[in-house]
C-alpha cells in the first residue's frame, strides 16, 4: 500500500500518478490535497509519513512544485527515508542503496510521462541489503540518538 499526497502545486501530477497506479492495480491511500486550492504542504507530508510510521502503508509518494519542501518535512519523521528523484536512475539507486520508503517529485520540474517512469522504476526496485544494510543501520542509530 502506498500513501500518496500533494499540495496544490502537485495536485495535477498526483492525479496522473493515481491513474497510473489504478491501471497497474497498485493500492494507495490519497492523503490529499483534493483540489488546486492552496494548502500547506507540511500537513500533507506529515499525513503520508504518519501512514508509514503507523504501518498503514509501506511506502509513500509526495508531490509539490519543487519536491524539496515535501522531502524536508518527510525526513523529519523517524524511519522515513525520503528521496527527491528527477529520473529513473536516481529512483532506482534511492531504493537499491538507501532503502527509500518515500519518493518526492517536483511537479514544476518533471514532465508527467517522466514522473510516471520515475514512479514505475522506484516501485519496481528492491533494496539490495548487504553493505547497504550496514549503512541503513547507521542511519537508524543516528535517528535514535537525535529523534527523541
Task: Describe, in plain words, how this protein is organized in 3D.
- The protein has 148 residues and is of the alpha/beta class.
- The protein has a single domain (2-146), classed as Ribose 5-phosphate Isomerase B, Chain: A, CATH 3.40.1400.
- The protein has helices at 11-23, 41-53, 68-74, 88-96, 112-124, 131-146; strands at residues 2-6, 28-30, 59-64, 82-84, 102-106.
- A five-stranded parallel beta sheet has the order 2-1-3-5-4, sandwiched between helices.
- Strand 4, helix 4 and strand 5 (102-106) form a beta-alpha-beta unit.
- Helix 1 crosses helix 5, helix 2 crosses helix 3 (68-74) and helix 4 runs parallel beside helix 5 (112-124).
- The model has no long low-confidence stretch (mean pLDDT 97).
State the gist of this model.
The chain has 6 helices and 5 strands, in the order E-H-E-H-E-H-E-H-E-H-H. It is an alpha/beta fold and 148 residues long.
Indicate how many domains the architecture comprises. Answer: 1
Work out the helix count.
6
Look at the structure and name the CATH superfamily.
Answer: Sugar-phosphate isomerase, RpiB/LacA/LacB
Number of strands: 5
The CATH architecture comes to 3-Layer(aba) Sandwich
Q: What's the story with the biggest beta sheet?
A: 5 strands, parallel
- Beta-strand residue fraction: 5-15%
CATH class identity = Alpha Beta
Q: How far apart are the first and last residues' alpha carbons, in Å?
A: 27 Å
What characteristic shape results from the CA principal axes? globular
- The sequence of SSEs as H and E is EHEHEHEHEHH
Radius of gyration: 14 Å
The CATH topology assignment is Ribose 5-phosphate Isomerase B, Chain: A
Q: In which order are the strands of the major sheet placed?
A: 2-1-3-5-4
Question: pLDDT average, as an integer?
Answer: 97
Helix content: 40-55%
Low-confidence stretches: none
Which structural category do the helix and sheet elements fall into?
alpha/beta
Amino acid at each position: 500500500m502506498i500513501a500518496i499526497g500533494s499540495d496544490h502545486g502537485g495536485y495535477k501530477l498526483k492525479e496522473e500518478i493515481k491513474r497510473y497506479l489504478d491501471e497497474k492495480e497498485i493500492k494507495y491511500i490519497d492523503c490529499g490535497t483534493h483540489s488546486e486550492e492552496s494548502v500547506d504542504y507540511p500537513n500533507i507530508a506529515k499525513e503520508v509519513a504518519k501512514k508509514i510510521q503507523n504501518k498503514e502503508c509501506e511506502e509513500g509518494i509526495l508531490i509539490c512544485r519543487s519536491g524539496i519542501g515535501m522531502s524536508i518535512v518527510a525526513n523529519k519523521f523517524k524511519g522515513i527515508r525520503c528521496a527527491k528523484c528527477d529520473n529513473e536512475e536516481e529512483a532506482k539507486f534511492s531504493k537499491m542503496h538507501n532503502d527509500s520508503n518515500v519518493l518526492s517529485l517536483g511537479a514544476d520540474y518533471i514532465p508527467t510521462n517522466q514522473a510516471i517512469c520515475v514512479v514505475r522504476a522506484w516501485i519496481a526496485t528492491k533494496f539490495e541489503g548487504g553493505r547497504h544494510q550496514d549503512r541503513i543501520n547507521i542511519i537508524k542509530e543516528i535517528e535514535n540518538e537525535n529523534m527523541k
